[in-house]
C-alpha cells in the first residue's frame, strides 16, 4: 500500500470525535507503561529507549489513521471497547505493582536496618540487654502483621520480666495512624496508634494495646513512616483484599522455647531481706516489694506526683481518700487511685486499685489484690526467683 503524507494529514484532521480521543489516550497510556519515559538528562545516554517510544507512537497512530475510513464501524465498536479495557487494565496493573513495591520496601527496611522494639529499648542501661532477630512484615486484609523474635544480647543470660520468643503485632492497616516522635539516644520513635486497638501476641498470650512503637535512627524512621502511609493509601485506593507475605512466620533458627505454662521472674534481694519485683505501671518501670502481707498495691507520694506530671496518671484516675493501717499498727491517710495497667513478667492486669501513701519515703508494695490475680505463686529463695503457674 502506498502511503502519502497528504492522505495521512487528511485523516489526522478528521480525528476529532470523543471516541477517537479516548482511544488515543488508551494507546498513549499503554505505550508509556510498556516503555517508560526517560528524563532530559537521560536522553543523551538512553537513546534507544527514547526512540522506541516515539516510533511506537508513530507506527500505531499512523496505522489507525490510514485504516480509519475502511474500519470506521469496527473501530468505533469492538476495537474501541478493547482499547478502553486495555487502558483500565494498565491502570490496575500499575497500582498493583506500586502496592507490591511498597510492601517489599517495608520488609526491606525492617530486615536491613537496626530497629528496636519497646522491649529492647526498655532494656537499655545504656546498652540493650535484649536483641531483635528476623523482624518481618506481612499482610492479610484488613490486618498487617509485624513479627519478630526477642532474644538475649551476647553475654546476657537473663533479663527480669522478659522471656525470649516470638512476638507478633497485629493492626488494621486502614484504622492505624503512623506518626514520628522523639526517643532517647539520638533516635526517633515511630508510633502506631489505633482507636480499635493493636493486638500483641507474646508467647501465646495476647494483649490489646492502644498504641505501640518502634525506635530507630531519624532517617530510617522517616523512610518507614512514609512507606507505611503509602501502603495504607494504596490498599485503600485499589480496594486490595488479598494477602501478602506469610502470616505464620517462624524461622527455624529461632524456634520459640516452650516447656510449660510457668512464668519465672527474677527477684532482687534488698537490704533487710526483702525482695523486689520489676513491674510496669501504665508503662512506667518501677520496682515493687513483693509483700504477701499487704492487702493492696501501695505507692509513695513522690511516685504519684511524678506519674501525674509525666502522663502516667491522670486526675480522672484519682478515686478519693482512704485511711489504712500499716504493719506497725499506725493509721495513715492515703489517696485511692485506679491503675489502668500493671505488667508483671509478661502478664497484664488492668484496672487495679492502689493506695498512695502521703509520704515521700513510703515503700512501693505489691499486695494481694494483684498477687491473687496472677495465679499460683511459688518462691525459690535459693535462686531468688518467683514462679507463676497458670
How does this structure look, described?
It is a single chain. The protein is of the alpha+beta class. It has nine helices and 18 strands. Strands 9, 10, 11, 12, 13, 14, 15 and 16 form an eight-stranded mixed sheet that branches. Strands 1, 2, 3, 4, 5, 6 and 7 form a seven-stranded antiparallel sheet that branches. Strand 14 (331-344) and strand 15 form a beta hairpin. Helix 5 (72-112) packs antiparallel against helix 7 (218-238). The chain is elongated. The relative contact order is 0.09.
Structural class: alpha+beta
Largest sheet: 8 strands, mixed
Q: Measured on Cα atoms, how large is the radius of gyration?
A: 32 Å
Helicity range:
25-40%
Key descriptive features of the protein:
seven-stranded antiparallel β-sheet; eight-stranded mixed β-sheet; elongated; 34% helix; alpha+beta; disordered N terminus; 390 residues
Task: Give a summary of the structure in a few sentences.
The chain has 390 residues and is of the alpha+beta class. Helices cover 34% and strands 35% of the residues.
Write the layout of secondary structure elements.
Layout: H1 5-13, H2 18-34, H3 40-43, H4 47-67, H5 72-112, H6 118-122, E1 130-140, E2 143-152, E3 165-172, E4 176-182, E5 188-202, E6 205-216, H7 218-238, E7 243-244, E8 262-266, E9 268-269, E10 275-281, E11 284-290, E12 297-300, H8 301-309, E13 318-325, E14 331-344, E15 347-357, E16 365-366, H9 368-374, E17 376-380, E18 385-389
Parallel strand pairs: 11-16, 12-15
Antiparallel strand pairs: 1-2, 1-7, 2-3, 3-5, 4-5, 5-6, 8-18, 9-10, 10-11, 10-14, 13-14, 14-15, 17-18
Amino acid at each position: 500500500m502506498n502511503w502519502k503524507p497528504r492522505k495521512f494529514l487528511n485523516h489526522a484532521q478528521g480525528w476529532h470525535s470523543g471516541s477517537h480521543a479516548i482511544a488515543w489516550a488508551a494507546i498513549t497510556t499503554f505505550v508509556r507503561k510498556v516503555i517508560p519515559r526517560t528524563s532530559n538528562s537521560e536522553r543523551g545516554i538512553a537513546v534507544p529507549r527514547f526512540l522506541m517510544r516515539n516510533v511506537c507512537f508513530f507506527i500505531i497512530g499512523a496505522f489507525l489513521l490510514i485504516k480509519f475510513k475502511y474500519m470506521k464501524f469496527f473501530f468505533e465498536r469492538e476495537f474501541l471497547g478493547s482499547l478502553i479495557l486495555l487502558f483500565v487494565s494498565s491502570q490496575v496493573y500499575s497500582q498493583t505493582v506500586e502496592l507490591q513495591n511498597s510492601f517489599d520496601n517495608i520488609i526491606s527496611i525492617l530486615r536491613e536496618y537496626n530497629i528496636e522494639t519497646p522491649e529492647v529499648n526498655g532494656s537499655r542501661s545504656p546498652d540493650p540487654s535484649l536483641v531483635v532477630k528476623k523482624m518481618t512484615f506481612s499482610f492479610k486484609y484488613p490486618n498487617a502483621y509485624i513479627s519478630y523474635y526477642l532474644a538475649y544480647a551476647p553475654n546476657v543470660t537473663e533479663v527480669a520480666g522478659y522471656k525470649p520468643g516470638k512476638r507478633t503485632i497485629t493492626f488494621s492497616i486502614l484504622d492505624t495512624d503512623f506518626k514520628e516522635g522523639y526517643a532517647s539516644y539520638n533516635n526517633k520513635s515511630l508510633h502506631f496508634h489505633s482507636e480499635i486497638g493493636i493486638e500483641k501476641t507474646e508467647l501465646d498470650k495476647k494483649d490489646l494495646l492502644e498504641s505501640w512503637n518502634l525506635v530507630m535512627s531519624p532517617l530510617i524512621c522517616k523512610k518507614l513512616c512514609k512507606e507505611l502511609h503509602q501502603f495504607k493509601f494504596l490498599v485503600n485506593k485499589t480496594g486490595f483484599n488479598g494477602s501478602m507475605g506469610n502470616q505464620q512466620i517462624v524461622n527455624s533458627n529461632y524456634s520459640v522455647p516452650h516447656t510449660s505454662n510457668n512464668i519465672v521472674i527474677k527477684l532482687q534481694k534488698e537490704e533487710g531481706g526483702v525482695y523486689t519485683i520489676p513491674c510496669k505501671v501504665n508503662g512506667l518501670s518501677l520496682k515493687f516489694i513483693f509483700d504477701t502481707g499487704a492487702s493492696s498495691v501501695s505507692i509513695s507520694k513522690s511516685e504519684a506526683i511524678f506519674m501525674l506530671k509525666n502522663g502516667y496518671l491522670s486526675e480522672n484516675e484519682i478515686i478519693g481518700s482512704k485511711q489504712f493501717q500499716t504493719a506497725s499498727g499506725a493509721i495513715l491517710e492515703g489517696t485511692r487511685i485506679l491503675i489502668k495497667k500493671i505488667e508483671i513478667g509478661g502478664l497484664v492486669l488492668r484496672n487495679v486499685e492502689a493506695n498512695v501513701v502521703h509520704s515521700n519515703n513510703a515503700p512501693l508494695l505489691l499486695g494481694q489484690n494483684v498477687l491473687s490475680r496472677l495465679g499460683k505463686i511459688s518462691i525459690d529463695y535459693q535462686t531468688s526467683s518467683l514462679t507463676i503457674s497458670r
